[in-house]
Amino acid sequence: MSYSSWIQNGSTEDKETFLNCPITKKRPLSTADLQAKDKIVDEKTLPVPFEDDFTDLIDDWFDDGMDQKSEAPKPKKNKCIPEHVILASGVHNRYWVLDVRDITSSRSCTEKHLTITCSKTTLSRETCILKDGCTPVAVGDVIHLEGRCVSGLWTIDRDSGFLVLLPDLLISGTSIANSIRCMRRGVLGEMFKAFDGGSKQMLNGTIVHDIFQKAAMSSDFSLERIKTFAAEALRNPNYLGQMYSLKLTQADMKQEVEEYLPSLSEWSKHYLHTSPQAGQKQLIENMVDFADIEENIWCPRFGLKGKIDVTAGVRIHRRGRKPTERIVPLELKTGKESNSIEHRSQVILYTLMSSARRCDPEVGFLVYLKTGSLHPVVGNHMDRRELIKIRNSLAHHIGNNLIKVDGRSQMAPLPAIVSDQQACKYCPQKRNCAVYNRYSVERDPMENYSEDPQAFVQSESEHLNHVHLQYFSHWLLLCTLEALTMENKGGRRNIWLQTAQQREKSGGCAGNMQLAGDVIVLSDGVYKHIFVRKESDQTLTGLIVGDRIVVSDQDSVLIGLAMGYVTEITVSGVTCSLDKNLSKYSSNTVFRLDQDEGAGGLGTHLGNLSMLMENTPTRVLTLIVEFRPPQFIDSLSSVLPRDAKDTVANILKGLNKPQKQAMKKVLLSKDYTLIVGMPGTGKTTTICTLVRILHACGFSVLLTSYTHSAVDNILLKLKRFKIGFLRLGRSQKVHHDILPFTEESCRAKGIQTLEELEQLYNKELIVATTCMGVKHPIFSRRRFDFCIVDEASQISQPVCLGPLFYAQRFVLVGDHQQLPPIVQNAEARTLGMDESLFKRLEHHSDAVVQLNVQYRMNSAIMSLSNVLMYEGRLECGSERMASAVLQLPGRAQVEKELDLFVCQPQYSAWVQAALEPNSPVCFLDTSEVPAPETVEKSGISNNTEAILVQAIVTLLLKAGCRASDIGVIAPYRQQLKAISSLLQGDAFKALEVNTVDKYQGRDKSVIIVSFVRSNPEGNLGELLQDWRRLNVAITRAKHKLLMLGSASTLRRYAPLEKLLCHLQQEDMISFTTLPAAAHEALPGIPL
């Protein structure tokens, strides 16, 4: 009988017998074993989780013949090893598979003989004999090997060693356990991570877990203490929010939770070392210590990750044997005491993960909290091997989810739908499974897909037509392509594949850090830590305030100890708020802080895409996917309440004509309105005014944007008009002046009941959050009259969908001629991933209003944007604005000093042109200097341009310009670093150096643009070839725009050629060719 057949068809009695755990002898484990990490004898001898006499505790509960079916071999890949692949030997070895041969052994068993290398040159080759031939490994795969290598030969068989496929793809133990009965569910669960569902049972389980963990860490399981923990949990803000979402009452949950409390207390009497009754059970004498709760483990040796409910020190004894102490995982379960294969699998995987962090526990325990029963689960080699095989199969499907057909990418087929109605009935991936199946059948009608293998496939997708399925499949492909590029650029794997020193060179890491002072508890599960350099002479680089970080030990043995955010950076240290208290580690522990590049991902994109396909009446689906034209009301009189007309009229008085048209269009809309906000036309002011009008009319408004800063900029204006609102989101991301309006601040005033929480959620007409923040409990119940999305042209379509589900009408504000959504994958960009929802819906011109009266730039700077993008439509708001120039009271003195120090007039002439207020636009051509670019692994920079930027900034400051009025823009981060390193000191502190993307929606009196690229080949890269980015760069300046670049290089691309031609034709614009070695001729000018 095959393993899968046994799972699906075997009787319950068979399974329970199969999973039984008789207890017998075991050798004692020394304290040294508990404390010591496995040692590496040499780099070719790797630690294998050891087994001694635990083998007689349980026969292999995976029989050798019970294997998953062999996967079809993948098409062979090019043997050229891609640049992003990191290979290594040692504990975290990474091998590239060069060749795979299927061999039939003398015993008629199929083996795979792999030719592998851990060197990019592929000169150093080794061989791996995989005696388990069903692992889906192919040429071009990256693998990790556990076991022993003798003279370049690895042997992986049923008794020793593991092969881990795509080990840097960390898969949770829960996903693997879910894949045992249905591999398709496991794959979909990794793709659509936001869809784990929620229920009363799940919430009850979470609360009971919390109570047990708190009792464990306090070593007090008395019924009185447990009841106190339960009462606190029922008032916990997170749990109140989940109760609100699930429409439960605190009384309901109290009744559910209280059923478990006596058994928790009773459990402690049997197993806690402080109890007189402890040690009377068959296997465990007692629990010696609770080492951790929710221990986060990332295990790249085995390609696993997970959170262990409780990590406990236990004393294990067997008859006639000396007791043995182990640190073991406890998996808490609140459901039926099933002792199921899924439950046992999770525990075995936790023992395997634990073995990579400390001495192999070999055994873990299932704790069923309703009955207080404890089941030992042994992690022997055979069981672990079978679970690693399932993990490899899951990794194969996830890692190879794209295939090429006729040179184009498309989604690979999923594993087949299982014929298990009970499993499918409660599967959280049911909708995604059905929709994926429908579009696969439509895409490949000749393929042998099962016809309606389950009734749910029809019921979950019958409302969808071909257009809907096409939209789903198109965006699923785009998101998958983008996720692949994001992963190839590093993701989290660099935390364990690169040393802290290597990571620091490329940015995004602070290594050699130690804890300083006490850890402060900020709130439940949030701890303030201060880290300082072990060697104080090193400067801190690579991290900025607001970065999400992962904390590990310096040697990447304890990976992912804690996660959180950087809250402050000083010369000597970094302050963070973390989700774990690290003070329990030795004071000598050295940590590394890595920027968490794997956070976020595309989970929100795919979650919203799935929600769009939901079988409920949704106008969003018809408006966005089917392109139904938006509808409008004929007259304002039917919209405006009588008592609000005077208020609205007063608000409208401060607006120009296009802004008034926008207000009217929104009020008349039945579906949606698009407001095009050209540069400087006051999008934020327009949105604020719109919210004021809607508020005056009694409409509820959901105010969103992609960034926290954009949301808060609008709220700061609303605050001045004394309009109330509720701000959702993490307080660390919210502007200081908006903090009093946050949910967190309101809750601090004392919200302890669901009724009080409901009042808070319904109190204000205006609710504000980012597009990513719509997973908040408030959206499970509340719906809004209007949703306003700022920065809509910068937001990817699936992300922009999120807030639209919760409003009757929506307003998108943006400008597709400015920054588009950021897309890193070239194929995804070609296929249209950078088309925002704003751009998609702009085809319905009836819904579009253009704001074209700008109040930022003088007429000379505005003319650039008009020529480049707007065909003359952009207008100045006043004559005063059109003629405004830069004020430099000390300019004459600076020019006098230059005349004294610079002998040759050509070296001071370009400076005079750069400082001339009546030439608001100045292009400084560096072709003759020359100023060649530098291309390095860390990025592209131009040191000569950086020196010239420093000189110009210094001259502007000397001439009387304030540092806060100057902004420097460059397209490459490496150039920003080069410029910033030259602008050190208090005089430059208020000056801002940033990318174009960071300046969207903002302005400065003076903007200096360093174009960087300068090479004989005329290679500009992708950034400078984007008209929209160029448009944003040149429209940030109010009074003076200074551009530095090599005209001969820049002219090779159309937008820059068009810009340069315009510069040379206009009288008010200065086009100046810098003399040779211009950057060396200026004297050092003191400030």
Automatic annotation (TrEMBL):
- Give compartment(s): Nucleus; Mitochondrion
Q: Which residues cross the membrane?
A: none
Primary site of residence: nucleus
| Alphabetically ordered keywords of this record | 4Fe-4S, ATP-binding, DNA damage, DNA repair, DNA replication, DNA-binding, Endonuclease, Helicase, Hydrolase, Iron, Iron-sulfur, Metal-binding, Mitochondrion, Multifunctional enzyme, Nuclease, Nucleotide-binding, Nucleus
Q: What class of enzyme is it?
A: hydrolase
DNA replication factor Dna2 N-terminal domain residues: 124-313
One annotated GO molecular function is: single-stranded DNA helicase activity
Q: Which cofactor does it need?
A: [4Fe-4S] cluster
A Gene Ontology annotation in the biological process aspect, one of them, is:
DNA replication, Okazaki fragment processing
Q: Where is the DNA2/NAM7 helicase-like C-terminal domain?
A: 833-1047
Which EC numbers characterise this protein's activity in its record? 3.1.-.-, 3.6.4.12
Identify the InterPro entries for this entry.
Dna2/JHS1_DEXXQ-box, DNA2/NAM7-like, DNA2/NAM7-like_C, DNA2/NAM7_AAA_11, DNA2_Rift, DNA_replication_fac_Dna2_N, P-loop_NTPase, PDDEXK-like_dom_sf
Per the record's keyword annotation, is ATP-binding included, yes or no? yes
Q: Which reaction does it catalyse?
A: ATP + H2O = ADP + phosphate + H(+)
Q: What does this protein do?
A: Key enzyme involved in DNA replication and DNA repair. Involved in Okazaki fragments processing by cleaving long flaps that escape FEN1: flaps that are longer than 27 nucleotides are coated by replication protein A complex (RPA), leading to recruit DNA2 which cleaves the flap until it is too short to bind RPA and becomes a substrate for FEN1. Also involved in 5'-end resection of DNA during double-strand break (DSB) repair by mediating the cleavage of 5'-ssDNA.
Family, similarity comment: Belongs to the DNA2/NAM7 helicase family.
**Annotated PANTHER family:** DNA REPLICATION ATP-DEPENDENT HELICASE_NUCLEASE DNA2, DNA2/NAM7 HELICASE FAMILY
Please give the name of this protein: DNA replication ATP-dependent helicase/nuclease
As recorded in Swiss-Prot or TrEMBL, the protein's gene is named LOC107666538
